[in-house]
Write a structure and sequence with these properties.
alpha/beta; 9-stranded mixed β-sheet; 10 helices; 9 strands; binds N'-Formylkynurenine
Length: about 325
């Protein structure tokens, strides 16, 4: 049921914990916020925003609600261009060593591995397409997938949420038939992990203590098994981001803070190179699309979403940049 949200007066319509699967489960839900009823938005003027939270595929304390600080800081200009905002939860990998909320071995919602996380994200997006016109055809391009009369969308992902969005557009862990909507026109990638093998290599002694190295290994093995081959196949830098693969893509903001204490800068450097290799131009948006822009952020890894102001700023910029392509 729709409920009003007193803390976010600029987003008066809020649907909390909507189940995106036929059999409802605890984590396969999403939250929606709309500045106005959907029928009062226009696919030629408004876009959907879809957020995917981080937490290393396993942290139960990082949920769809990590978007709230960003929502508080959305500008009137951004809101005037947004049809709706969704924030997706998905099943997690085991975290038996979590200090406050360890996972139990029989908890089906917290014992999955790749490709279940990305499959959940794809199901959520299919639900958003079917119920909320996300990723639909706008009516005048012949073959852009999705339902007629729909909205273009922009994905935002923090940390492993950025990884998941890259896997989504390059179909890593997915079959074409798993995806029933058009791809995003833009991505805001924040402090993402794009190469799992170098993520581990960069967090081994002597670069860090054996205790820290163990945490990184637990994260990657917990979500992707012990197989080096599996790490390689699941990494966005092994994916394809060509025009043929992701035809809707126009703008990628690769955002990274040099104060990030958890994810190293090499991740964003490698991903930028991958996009360039697949035909993307680096630099400012000249209006003709397929541009990857580097955006410098400040602050620590989680402070980026805890504060939210820099994410809201990037949303302002990307909706402006994407408006040319609607
Ligand atoms: N809070 C997480 C750690 C975490 O999120 C993380 C740690 C290192 C590098 C990246 C991380 N998050 C990415 O989604 C945990 O407790 O596992």
């Amino acid at each position: 049921m729709p409920s009003s949200n007193l803390n976010l007066p600029h987003l008066p319509i809020h649907h909390a914990s909507q189940s995106y699967t036929d059999e409802p489960t605890r984590s396969r839900t999403l939250d929606l916020w709309l500045p106005r009823p959907l029928e009062d938005s226009d696919p030629k003027k408004h876009v959907w925003i879809v957020y995917i939270h981080g937490g290393a595929w396993r942290d139960p304390l990082q949920t769809s609600q990590t978007l709230l600080p960003t929502l508080k800081h959305l500008s009137p200009i951004a809101l005037s261009k947004i049809a709706g905002i969704a924030s997706i939860d998905y099943r997690l990998s085991p975290y038996p060593k979590h200090p406050d909320e360890p996972s139990k071995p029989d908890d089906a919602e917290r014992n999955v591995r790749h490709p279940v996380h990305i499959a959940d994200v794809a199901s959520a997006l299919n639900y958003l397409g079917a119920k909320w016109k996300v990723g639909g055809k706008d009516g005048d391009s012949e073959d852009d997938g999705g339902e007629e009369g729909g909205f273009k969308w922009i994905g935002i992902g923090h940390s492993c949420g950025a990884t998941l969005l890259c896997q989504y557009v390059s179909r890593i862990g997915l079959h074409d038939s798993d995806i029933k909507i058009a791809g995003p026109v833009g991505l805001i990638l924040l402090e993402g992990i794009y190469d799992l093998s170098s993520f581990l290599k960069n967090h081994k002694p002597p670069k860090c203590s054996p205790e820290i190295a163990q945490i990184y290994e637990d994260i990657v093995v917990g979500a992707f098994t012990e197989s080096k081959e599996a790490w390689k196949k699941a990494s966005p830098v092994s994916g394809k981001f060509t025009e043929e693969q992701w035809k809707e893509g126009r703008l990628v903001y690769l955002c990274y803070s040099n104060e990030d204490e958890l994810v190293e800068v090499e991740q964003a450097v490698e991903m930028r190179q991958k996009l360039k290799d697949d035909g993307w131009s680096a630099g400012k948006d000249a209006g003709d699309g397929r541009i990857v822009e580097r955006k410098a952020l400040h602050g620590k890894h989680d402070w980026i979403w805890e504060d939210g102001t820099q994410i809201a700023k990037r949303i302002d910029e990307i909706v402006e940049g994407i408006a040319k392509h609607l």
